[in-house]
Design brief:
The chain is of the alpha/beta class. The protein has 15 helices and ten strands.
Length: 371
């Protein structure tokens, strides 16, 4: 993804603008989001509306109380698809500040608006639809006074929850991660029962972060906690600051994710923990099942992260012959010589050589071929 550059497909003029935009939207997986956007289960906020609302000193209200102009329709999103590389869709990952309202004085609203303003400075991002749970999913309007979602809204809410893995893990959506609390927030000042854990210690935040670490390019997963106070950001400077020192771990296998989740805090852990485990596994299978390229450049990973990524690489039940094995062995031996790649399953009789050119496993070792 370049800074201030655009790539126009040659077929744009041949197809006509509307057909071209729809083709581009679906080429990059926009069709995966269409069911929940068309049904109304998820409503994406207009980034420009968020900016205007923040600059006016506003506070975000729940979805049912927001005006129509706060949202972008599915048709708006398709029309805003400009670039051969990403979708005009973002998802916000952040810790709620209180039990009943995620951002009661608009502190996080201002921080998010600042980042969105920088993203919209890119010439190919004319509009951006943002998933912000409080404004995008149907909420209980006033639970303290027993004003709850209607039956229809409750069904849409559950449908929306089911698509979260796709929204955050999609390789062509932005994920904006507020990994720090706003200035002035003190955990000890919060009401009893409020989840005051930090970003990476919260169940939903950890899940959203893990989703965004699967197959997404680094420039599409931004840590807004790294934004500098007083900086007037544009697209390139935002990407630079919010991806510095990586900030993303290698993708976790569902089993490893489930184990880590046991140490995370949930406001409603009894129901949410098994739900996010299921959603994570589904997203993992969905994204790695169709990925053709993995781009993990510029993430600041070292030997530990590389070892985690390479720990289990399964290629069995394929028809990889001797030439393919030689190519893999050369790549592993040359580029991954320092890694701890313990298992490479190949349904073939050819043995791979790795570990800086040594044959591994030794000829005496039985079992599946391993590199």
């Amino acid at each position: 993804m370049g800074c201030g550059t655009s790539k126009v497909l040659p077929s744009a003029t041949d197809l006509g603008v509307e057909k071209y935009k729809l083709r581009l939207w679906r080429k990059h997986g926009g069709g995966d989001l269409e069911p929940v956007l068309a049904s109304g289960a998820v409503a994406l906020l207009d980034a420009q509306w968020i900016i205007s609302h923040a600059e006016a000193g506003g506070v975000l209200t729940h979805r049912q109380a927001l005006p129509k102009e706060a949202f972008l329709s599915l048709a708006d999103l398709v029309e805003a698809t400009e670039h051969d590389g990403w979708l005009p869709v973002g998802a916000l990952s952040y810790p709620w500040l209180t039990k009943d309202h995620p951002d009661p004085i608009g502190a996080n609203l201002s921080r998010v608006a600042r980042a969105l303003k920088a993203l919209l400075s890119h010439p190919d991002i004319t509009r951006l639809g943002v998933f912000w749970d409080f404004g995008s999913l149907h909420q209980h309007p006033d639970p303290a006074n027993s004003v709850m979602r209607t039956e229809e809204q409750n069904a849409l809410f559950k449908q929306g929850l089911g698509c979260l893995g796709t929204l955050y893990s999609h390789p062509h959506t932005y994920v904006l991660r507020l990994t720090s609390f706003p200035d002035g927030y003190e955990a000890e000042d919060q009401a009893e029962g409020t989840n005051v854990a930090k970003y990476f210690d919260r169940g939903w935040c950890a899940t959203e972060n893990a989703w965004s670490s699967l197959t997404k390019a680094s420039a599409l997963s931004l840590d807004l906690g790294k934004m500098r106070d007083g900086e007037e950001y544009v697209y390139c400077s935002l990407i630079g600051d919010c991806t510095q020192e990586g900030g993303r771990r290698p993708p976790l296998l569902p089993s490893a994710f489930a184990a880590e989740l046991e140490s995370k805090s949930f406001t409603n852990g009894k129901d949410d923990k098994p739900l996010v485990k299921r959603l994570y596994e589904a997203a993992f299978k969905e994204q790695f099942g169709k990925a053709t390229r993995l781009n993990y450049r510029g993430l600041g990973w070292g030997d530990a992260e590389a070892a985690q990524l390479a720990e289990e690489l399964y290629l069995n039940r394929n028809e990889i012959g001797s030439e393919g094995c030689k190519a893999l062995a050369a790549a592993l031996g040359k580029e991954w010589a320092a890694l701890r790649l313990e298992e490479l399953y190949l349904a073939t009789t050819t043995r791979l050589a790795t570990r800086a050119g040594r044959r591994w496993p030794p000829p005496s070792r039985r079992g599946p071929h391993r590199a």
